[in-house]
């Protein structure tokens, strides 16, 4: 039977359990489980990670752990009783584990690896703690390391800061809020602002000396040098180097690395240098021969210096090379480092170029023990310690030093009878009193062991040598007495023997006869002569001799032979045991000389402080010994004691305070001293105001803490010795002393007669009071040792209460008074509840005064914080309740006002001041929260009853609501202080619940107050919207903890809002619509309970608004504004879209609200509101999603355009519309879309007028007139059009602005504008523009944003952007999208799919403007603008086979489906893409396709020939290739394919309506032959010699071509005509009669290029081979490079007639990368073949299909040259840069032209001789949106023979605009243009870039636009109908017989609609008339 478990409550899973049995609970290793029941080896319980799932599991799978149980029973909570650090560590590592994996997913590798390393470290430390074998100190270290790593990881992962106390997490409910704040602030400050270190250390590591002339051992000596004071500040670091310049003992790192310790902050300045002196050890001369002498000398070598300024940045210098200077003059050696520092190093030579001293330097900060911990590896390897000279800035007790520093300065010696000066070497030894040499007490420097003697370096031939070598003598104290230092002088010979001859000596004793050490300073020693063989065994013989020059006459023991020679040294003693001060010795020996006691006591103040602290205990024993012996010296002893006490206040000696404390506790024995001390102290206090004996007043008051310590300890000793005698006497004396103090404090410092007498020793009375108050709180703890707590509290209360209460603005005493109060609150006395209640009134009194005056708020905050730290939450003691009563009555109101005051101030600018400001604010807030948390029901009730009037209550409520709003601000606490925020929110909501009752009782009905209710609702809304309360963003474990401790406070506050709203009644109208926005924010929170509470309020609002005004206009406007502002504030996070489905119910299908709305009378207006807001919400959500992305992309821009249009068209909110215009403008500028940016800004410009109406400041615009703003906009738009190279549009605006300047007679600006306009014209002519490509993009699937979903767009590509690049860019913008691999329209399955599908292919623009493009003589750089700008319509072609496919000749059944797309706006515009508004599909017959192919090739040939003839072509290769391709293909049967397909009787019989077209095809063949013959003639003239064989081959093949066509001579076919080429030709009037036409002028209408095949065998661009059928059926397309030299597009089937083998591989070129087509496949594979057209590798290069035409008439298309895009190479000329953007399609024309020609609009063609017309009936199949029966209209014409003539062709003025054309040109010009210029091959593009005579076509039957739909004016052009242009009579063509000719129409004609097979006139479409630049 299952029984509840009693002891088994908590465990850890040690083996995974799958839970496969019934009721089994699945567990993983490491899970923590709570056990509920047990039964025979099984437990029942749950895993803590998922407490909702309960089950059973084996008991042996769980390791039990000790735990405590709270709330035993059904809702019991188990808490493990393990170490708090272990608990935190475990839970933290669990949270980190999940986040750690996410780091890997997010590719944050660095943090991933670092965090993994830290987690492993924590686990290792956790094991150490769990083992339990650590010592107490080691355990503390381990826990410190653990918490440090936990904090680091939490900070890196953005988790919360954890408050800790002694390494354990604290429960915020168990401590006061102020203590919690301090813990948080301490950890935050520790994290952010490290405390600057006061101690610094320099690490130096010697690496090597790089020098070319080494070979001797070296000594390198480092030291720190103060260049400002010209003295060393550190000992020396000594390194020995071997002959190679490397450390001599590399295995001992302490020999070549050292730490210069104890540098103070004042030592870190630029004039501190590291000096390096290098001494070589070898022969006297560096270049001496080896056999000269074997004796080794120390000789100067070089010096280096480096300022430590480079190290102050904190960076270590690992490989630093110091320049080493060699000393040329040895006499300057002692100052070489000074000269190098002073940059006077010109006199020294460097040791070599690429040479120097390699060292590693690093500056370390902190205490030496901390350095040992942080850089343990350095100390483990070994490092020598180099001290500062003398004591450090802070002298530590117990520091033992006895170092004597000797500097060998200089000497003066005689020649000694020699002709040259001596080579003097000094030997120094230390000799004890017994005459023995002390060994190992001479230190050359750290890094080298001490030696027993020292040898100086030798200066060559110098009788006045200067060494300046510093030595340290660490002689023990016991060996100091009787010892002396001896200096021996030897001459070093340079002869072979190298003898060292002794010639003199000096000595100096270390201690004087009176026991003092030798004084510091420079000493001149006497040099005593001696013999070479003198032996110094008996030192007593010379110690009686004089040793100092100053003592020469005073010493009469022995005579000195010669005193001319001298030797100077400098000594400096650093000892903690020896003194050089005689006064100190006299004081310490006072018993020997009692008569000297007064003098010794007086001289104590003159003794150096370091001497006193060295003998502190002896000095104190002396003073109290004198006091015990005689009371007559009490005053002097008191003064000396005060001096010593104040000496310890100095920062240098402050560490000796513990020494004095130890002395008082353990060594002090003056049991009677307290009487004298109290007596003298009272005497001083009583005489403060008197004018005599006042020199020590301030020092006495400063020293009162230790004086009281001596008094108390003395009294304790006396009581212990006497059994407590004289207790009453002692109490009386203390009371009298305190009365004197109170009397002194109560004296007024101003307005009293004593003021003039109160100038005590230069200090006013106020300052003396301040000194007393500073040290008085330290006395409390001493008094408590002898008195009761209440007695001491009353003493302190009376003393502090005696202070004057008058506040003066400039009274500095007030600050000190507050500091005294603060110390009192922090004292032990205040922590006792009994004494605290006594002291609280005086503390609150002073605190209230200062808060009222807003003075010293930092100290006030500190006091408040300390006060509340002592009182815990829910303290039920009566004393605590009374304290809260007192504090509430005294401080609550002033505390609220203070917080309001300091938070309303501007924050200080300085970082330190700002930190202090934040600390003050935080402490006041924490104090307020602590006070409110401790208030109970009774406190709140008393507080609310304490207000006398409603106005007072109203002011209080407004005040506290305002403060709460301030506390909720995000900036109130740092981001990671979540614990503090929850505590604050808990206090706020508790208080609000108390105060809401007062609000209902006092401010409803008659006493309604809008302001206070509004403040309440505003507070509640921002409370709910706090980011820290959004539990959904938390991890599950964190959410669980929060809900367990606080619950969901949002729901609680939401219920309170609902309750208060229901109580308002009719007063609700005051808050409509003001509260709609705030309440809407609340409903956006994804908390179902909260939404259920808040939604009914909206119905209530709508109902009351309907009652009041009858509509929802205000509600709607407010909702829209609020939704937009929420998006702007970034409320659209990841969950926002998910919330959308739950937010929509707010307005629509939410059951309760919807039912309520449907029951209301205002249902229709409610539904309208719902619809509007829903649509806006969709767009705003999309906008927010897009704006979150980093870079600007098309999605952002498209989304902004959608929102912008919505605001204008549907909401008509002009201000929001303008705001989004500028947001869109900023996006374009960031993306460098300058043209689009200009169009965008033009939207705002069009809203303004040229008026003087003043405009307010708006966005970035200043306050100005409407005229000025419009002028500024014009200038900005012009600038952007200029940068976008859209200069024609800029010219329009220049003229408009110039017109305004002219109207205002502003000729200065008019002149500038005209010059700007002229510059734009120059740029049009001089600069090259790239023609962009256009791409059609379909967005299919429900996962796309609303503004893209299931829509198709046409996008304007970037410069040089081809299809592959564009497709990759789109897939980057939509990373989850799937690229569709076919061009077919998707079905409904794709539309409704929960995915994203992209369908992308290139399209060809159809220019609106034909006039400029058709006119001859206009440069291409002018035409290029009209080819790609203001384009509304685009097309693409798709080839397919209809009917049975002939394997021998595929052209019989090859049709082309041409699709035309019409956009909602023209490109370019305010976006780079616009939606497709309309699709039209037209099918072209095979015959039409063939005609078009031939027309294109003929036009290409004409253009190339013309360019060659006018010498525009620098290279003849393009012409050669084109001729060769056509001729060679034709010879190999290319023409025969057309003949076989269309010239056979069977076809003519079956298609009688195509007679005209068949004739036209034959004409084109003959025409091509004529052009080829003329081209060969021109080619022969220019062909280079090496290509002559190819030319001859082409001529031969051409004759074969003529034979195949049955042509012997062209004279019989076409009459001879001159050739008129476009460039350089004279212009012929439009009305002139046509001249005889040459072959190159036969047609000037550009046509399409051939297809490009990626087959292995390349074909000529015009090939039509016998393999064509096979190629077509097996083709897989591939985009190729657009930059190949000839721009060829090999095509085996569709481009003109050529052989498959004519062009060699090196002259053929692939299609441009943007070319794409849907290649023709076999029927069963047709769908998959078309599907592959968009794949970059598998797509055929001709996937762009012809444009459709409407049923009744022929559709006329663009000329080829409109869309050529310059190549990416900027160095190529314009012709060379032509790159076709879309490949040709697979179509060949069928005979469908005649009718379309007759009904087309304005047509452009060259004049040709008339020919008889032939009736024909076009055959056409139409696949349009609304299919209708097609009409047919035969077209007649004939062709006359002509012969080539090399003369110019006619200009475009000769072109016909008649709907009926005659002759072969009628047929030719009306044929469907199958491709655009982007579909041409490369050299075709070049041709039409060169020629300016191309013609442009638009679809003649364009779908009718709705008359009532006028698009927004996004273009600078107005869309109007064109005026019809008359056609010259000479170009008119006789009307066909059937049907009758149509009258002339404006071209290009608009599409018509069919009714019952008859054409109806089209409706006019409001399109802008594309004017020339001169018309703009």
| Number of helical stretches of at least 4 residues | 60
Radius of gyration: 52 Å
How does the helix and strand content classify structurally? alpha+beta
Say what oligomer this is.
single chain
How can the largest sheet be summarized? Answer: 7 strands, antiparallel
Please report the total strand number as a whole number. 42
Question: How confident is the prediction overall: mean pLDDT?
Answer: 74
Give unreliable regions as ranges.
552-559, 750-762, 1132-1154, 1611-1976
Q: How helical, in percent, are the residues?
A: 40-55%
Strand content: 5-15%
Global shape: extended
CA(first)-CA(last) distance:
99 Å
Give a brief outline of the structure.
With 1976 residues, the protein is α+β, with helices and mostly antiparallel strands.
């Amino acid at each position: 039977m299952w029984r509840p478990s009693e002891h088994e409550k908590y465990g850890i899973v040690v083996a995974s359990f799958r839970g496969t049995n019934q009721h089994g609970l699945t567990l993983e290793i490491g899970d923590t489980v709570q056990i509920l029941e047990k039964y025979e080896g099984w437990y029942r319980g749950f895993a803590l990670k998922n407490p909702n799932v309960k089950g059973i599991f084996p008991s042996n799978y769980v390791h039990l752990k000790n735990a405590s149980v709270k709330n035993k029973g059904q809702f019991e909570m188990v808490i493990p009783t393990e170490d708090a650090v272990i608990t935190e560590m475990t839970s933290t590592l669990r949270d980190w584990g999940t986040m750690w994996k996410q780091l890997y997913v997010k590719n944050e590798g660095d943090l991933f690896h670092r965090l993994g390393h830290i987690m492993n470290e924590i686990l290792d430390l956790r094991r150490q703690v769990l083992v339990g074998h650590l010592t107490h100190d080691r355990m503390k270290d381990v826990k410190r390391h653990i918490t440090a790593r936990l904090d680091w990881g939490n900070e890196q992962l953005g988790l919360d800061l954890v408050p800790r106390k002694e390494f354990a997490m604290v429960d915020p409910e168990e401590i006061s809020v102020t203590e919690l704040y301090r813990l948080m602030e301490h950890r935050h400050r520790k994290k952010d602002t490290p405390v600057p270190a006061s101690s610094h250390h320099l690490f130096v590591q010697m690496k090597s000396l790089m020098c070319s002339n080494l070979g001797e051992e070296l000594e390198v000596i480092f030291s720190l040098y103060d260049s400002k004071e010209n003295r060393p500040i550190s000992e020396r670091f000594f390194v020995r180097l071997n002959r190679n310049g490397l450390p001599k003992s590399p295995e001992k790192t302490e020999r070549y690395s050292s730490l210069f310790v104890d540098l103070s902050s004042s030592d870190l300045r630029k004039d501190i240098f590291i000096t390096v002196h290098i001494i070589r050890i070898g022969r006297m001369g560096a270049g001496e021969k080896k056999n000269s002498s074997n004796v080794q000398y120390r000789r100067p070598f070089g010096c280096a210096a480096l300022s430590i300024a480079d190290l102050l940045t904190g960076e270590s210098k690992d490989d630093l090379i110091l320049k080493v200077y060699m000393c040329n003059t040895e006499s300057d050696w002692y100052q070489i480092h000074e000269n190098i520092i002073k940059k006077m190093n010109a006199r020294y030579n460097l040791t070599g170029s690429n040479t120097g001293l390699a060292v590693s330097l690093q500056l370390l900060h902190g205490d030496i023990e901390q350095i040992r911990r942080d850089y343990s590896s350095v100390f483990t390897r070994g490092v020598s310690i180099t001290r500062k000279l003398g004591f450090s800035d802070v002298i530590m007790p117990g520091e033992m030093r006895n170092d004597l520093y000797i500097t060998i300065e200089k000497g003066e010696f005689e020649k000694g009878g020699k002709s040259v000066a001596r080579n003097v070497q000094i030997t120094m030894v230390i000799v004890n009193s017994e005459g023995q040499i002390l060994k190992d007490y001479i230190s050359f420097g750290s890094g080298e062991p001490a030696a027993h003697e020292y040898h100086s370096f030798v200066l060559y031939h110098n009788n006045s040598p200067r060494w300046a070598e510093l030595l340290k003598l660490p002689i023990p104290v016991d060996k100091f007495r009787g010892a002396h230092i001896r200096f021996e002088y030897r001459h070093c010979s340079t002869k072979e023997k190298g003898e060292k001859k002794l010639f003199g000596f000096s000595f100096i004793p270390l201690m004087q006869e009176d026991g003092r050490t030798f004084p510091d300073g420079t000493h001149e020693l006497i040099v005593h002569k001696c013999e070479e063989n003198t032996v110094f065994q008996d030192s007593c013989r010379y110690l009686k001799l004089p040793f100092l020059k100053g003592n020469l006459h005073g010493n009469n023991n022995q005579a000195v032979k010669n005193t001319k020679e001298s030797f100077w040294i400098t000594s400096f003693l650093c000892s903690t045991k020896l003194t050089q001060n005689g006064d100190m010795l006299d004081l310490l020996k006072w018993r020997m000389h009692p008569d000297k006691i007064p003098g010794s006591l007086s001289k104590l103040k003159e003794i150096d402080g370091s001497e006193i602290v060295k003998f502190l205990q002896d000095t104190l024993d002396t003073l109290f010994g004198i006091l015990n012996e005689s009371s007559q010296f009490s005053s002097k002893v008191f003064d000396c004691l005060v001096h010593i006490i104040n000496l310890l206040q100095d920062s240098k000696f402050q560490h000796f305070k513990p020494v004095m404390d130890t002395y008082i506790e353990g060594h002090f024995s003056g049991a009677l001293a307290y009487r004298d001390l109290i007596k003298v102290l009272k005497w001083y206090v009583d005489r403060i105001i008197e004018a005599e004996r006042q020199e020590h007043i301030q020092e006495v008051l400063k020293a009162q803490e230790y004086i009281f310590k001596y008094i108390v300890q003395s009294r304790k000793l006396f009581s212990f010795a006497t059994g407590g005698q004289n207790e009453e006497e002692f109490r009386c004396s203390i009371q009298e002393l305190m009365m004197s103090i109170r009397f002194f404090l109560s004296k007024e410092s101003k307005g009293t007669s004593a003021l003039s007498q109160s100038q005590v020793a230069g200090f006013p009375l106020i300052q003396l009071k301040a000194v007393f108050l500073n040290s008085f709180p330290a006395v409390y703890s001493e008094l408590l040792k002898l008195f009761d707590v209440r007695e001491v509290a009353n003493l302190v209360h009376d003393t502090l209460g005696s202070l004057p209460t008058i506040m003066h603005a400039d009274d500095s005493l007030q600050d000190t008074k507050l500091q005294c109060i603060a110390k009192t609150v922090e004292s032990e006395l205040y922590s006792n509840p009994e004494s605290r209640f006594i002291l609280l009134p005086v503390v609150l009194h002073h605190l209230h005064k200062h808060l009222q005056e807003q003075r010293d708020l930092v100290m006030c905050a500190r006091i408040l914080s300390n006060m509340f730290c002592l009182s815990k939450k829910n303290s039920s003691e009566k004393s605590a309740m009374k304290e809260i009563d007192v504090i509430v009555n005294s401080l609550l109101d002033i505390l609220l006002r203070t917080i309001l005051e300091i938070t309303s101030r501007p924050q200080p600018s300085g970082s330190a001041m700002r930190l202090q400001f934040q600390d003050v604010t935080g402490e006041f807030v924490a104090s307020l929260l602590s006070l409110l948390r401790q208030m109970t029901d009774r406190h709140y009730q008393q507080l609310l009853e304490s207000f006398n009037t409603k106005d007072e209550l109203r002011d209080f409520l407004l005040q506290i609501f305002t403060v709460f709003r301030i506390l909720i601000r995000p900036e109130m606490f740092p981001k990671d202080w979540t614990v503090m925020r929850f505590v604050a929110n808990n206090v706020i909501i508790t208080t609000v619940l108390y105060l809401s009752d007062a609000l209902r009782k006092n401010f409803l009905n008659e006493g309604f107050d809008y302001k206070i209710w509004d403040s309440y609702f505003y507070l509640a809304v921002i409370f709910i919207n706090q980011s820290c309360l959004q539990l959904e963003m938390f991890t599950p474990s964190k959410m669980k903890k929060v809900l367990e401790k606080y619950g969901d406070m949002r729901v609680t506050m939401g219920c309170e809002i609902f309750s208060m709203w229901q109580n308002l009644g009719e007063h609700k109208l005051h808050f409509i619509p003001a509260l709609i926005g705030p309440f809407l924010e609340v409903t956006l929170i994804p908390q179902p309970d909260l939404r259920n509470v808040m939604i009914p309020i909206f119905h209530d609002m709508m109902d009351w608004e309907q009652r009041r005004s009858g509509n929802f206009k205000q509600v709607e406007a407010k909702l829209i504004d609020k939704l937009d502002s929420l998006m702007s504030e970034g409320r659209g996070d990841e969950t926002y879209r998910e919330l959308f489905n739950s937010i929509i119910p707010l307005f629509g299908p939410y059951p309760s609200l919807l039912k309520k709305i449907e029951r209301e009378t205002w249902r229709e207006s409610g539904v309208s509101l719902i619809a509007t807001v829903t649509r806006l919400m969709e767009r705003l959500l999309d906008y927010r999603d897009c704006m979150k992305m980093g870079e600007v992309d098309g999605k952002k821009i498209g989304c902004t355009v959608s929102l912008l249009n919505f605001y204008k068209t549907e909401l008509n909110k002009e201000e929001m519309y303008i705001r989004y215009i500028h947001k869109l403008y900023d996006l374009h500028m960031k993306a460098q879309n300058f043209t689009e940016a200009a169009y965008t800004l033009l939207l705002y410009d069009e809203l303004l007028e040229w008026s003087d109406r003043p405009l307010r400041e708006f966005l970035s615009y200043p306050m100005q007139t409407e005229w000025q703003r419009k002028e500024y906009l014009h200038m900005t738009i012009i600038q952007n059009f200029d940068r976008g190279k859209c200069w024609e549009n800029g010219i329009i605006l220049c003229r408009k602005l110039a017109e305004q300047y002219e109207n205002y007679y502003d000729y200065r600006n008019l002149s500038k504008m005209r010059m700007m306009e002229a510059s734009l014209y120059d740029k049009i002519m001089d600069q090259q523009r790239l023609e962009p490509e256009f791409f059609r993009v379909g967005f299919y699937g429900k996962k796309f944003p609303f503004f893209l979903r299931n829509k198709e767009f046409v996008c304007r590509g970037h410069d040089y952007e081809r299809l592959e690049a564009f497709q990759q860019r789109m897939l980057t913008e939509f990373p989850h999208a799937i690229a569709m691999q076919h061009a077919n329209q998707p079905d409904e399955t794709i539309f409704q799919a929960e995915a994203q599908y992209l369908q992308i292919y290139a399209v060809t623009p159809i220019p609106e403007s034909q006039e400029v493009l058709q006119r001859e003589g206009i440069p291409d750089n002018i035409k290029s603008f009209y080819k790609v700008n203001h384009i509304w319509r685009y097309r693409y072609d798709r080839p397919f086979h209809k009917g049975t496919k002939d394997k021998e000749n595929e052209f019989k059944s090859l049709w082309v489906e041409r699709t035309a797309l019409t956009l909602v706006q023209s490109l370019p515009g305010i976006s780079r893409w616009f939606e497709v508004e309309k699709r039209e599909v037209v099918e072209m017959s095979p015959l039409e396709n063939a005609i078009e192919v031939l027309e294109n090739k003929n036009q290409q040939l004409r253009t190339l020939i013309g360019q060659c003839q006018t010498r525009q072509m620098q290279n003849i290769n393009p012409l050669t290739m084109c001729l060769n391709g056509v001729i060679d293909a034709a010879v190999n049967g290319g023409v025969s394919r057309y003949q076989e397909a269309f010239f056979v009787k069977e076809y003519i019989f079956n298609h009688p309506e195509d007679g005209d077209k068949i004739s036209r095809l034959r004409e084109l063949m003959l025409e091509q032959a004529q052009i080829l013959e003329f081209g060969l003639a021109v080619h022969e003239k220019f062909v280079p010699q090496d290509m002559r064989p190819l030319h001859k081959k082409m001529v031969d093949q051409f004759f074969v071509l003529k034979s195949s066509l049955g042509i012997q001579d062209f004279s019989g076919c076409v009459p001879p005509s001159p050739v008129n080429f476009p460039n350089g030709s004279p212009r012929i009037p439009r009305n002139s009669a046509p001249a005889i036409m040459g072959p190159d002028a036969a047609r000037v209408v550009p046509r399409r290029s051939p297809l490009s095949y990626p087959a292995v065998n390349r074909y000529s661009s015009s090939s039509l081979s016998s393999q064509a059928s096979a190629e077509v059926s097996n083709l897989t397309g591939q985009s190729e490079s657009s930059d190949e030299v000839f721009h060829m597009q090999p095509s085996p089937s569709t481009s003109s007639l050529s052989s498959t083998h004519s062009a060699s591989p090196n002259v053929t070129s692939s299609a441009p990368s943007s070319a794409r087509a849907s290649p023709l496949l076999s029927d069963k594979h047709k769908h998959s073949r078309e599907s592959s057209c968009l794949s970059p590798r598998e797509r055929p290069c001709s996937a762009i299909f012809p444009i459709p035409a409407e049923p009744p008439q022929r559709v006329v298309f663009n000329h080829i040259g409109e869309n050529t895009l310059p190549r990416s190479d900027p160095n190529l000329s314009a012709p060379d840069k032509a790159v076709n953007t879309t490949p040709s399609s697979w179509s060949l024309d069928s005979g469908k032209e005649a009718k379309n020609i007759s009904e087309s609009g304005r047509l452009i063609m060259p004049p040709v001789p008339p020919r008889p017309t032939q009736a024909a009936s076009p055959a056409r199949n139409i696949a349009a949106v609304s299919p209708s029966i097609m009409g047919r209209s035969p077209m007649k014409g004939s062709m006359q023979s002509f012969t080539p003539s090399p003369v110019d062709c006619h200009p475009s003025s000769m072109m016909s605009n008649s709907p009926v054309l005659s002759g072969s040109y009628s047929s030719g010009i009306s044929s469907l243009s199958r491709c655009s210029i982007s579909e041409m091959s490369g050299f075709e593009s070049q041709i039409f870039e060169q020629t300016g005579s191309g013609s442009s076509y638009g679809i003649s039957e364009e779908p009718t636009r709705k008359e009532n739909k006028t698009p927004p004016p996004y273009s600078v052009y107005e869309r109007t109908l064109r005026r019809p242009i008359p056609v010259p009579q000479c170009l008119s063509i006789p009307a066909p017989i059937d049907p009758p000719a149509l009258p002339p129409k404006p071209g290009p004609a608009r599409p018509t609609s069919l009714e019952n097979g008859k054409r109806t006139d089209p409706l006019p479409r409001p399109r802008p008339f594309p004017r020339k630049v001169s018309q703009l």
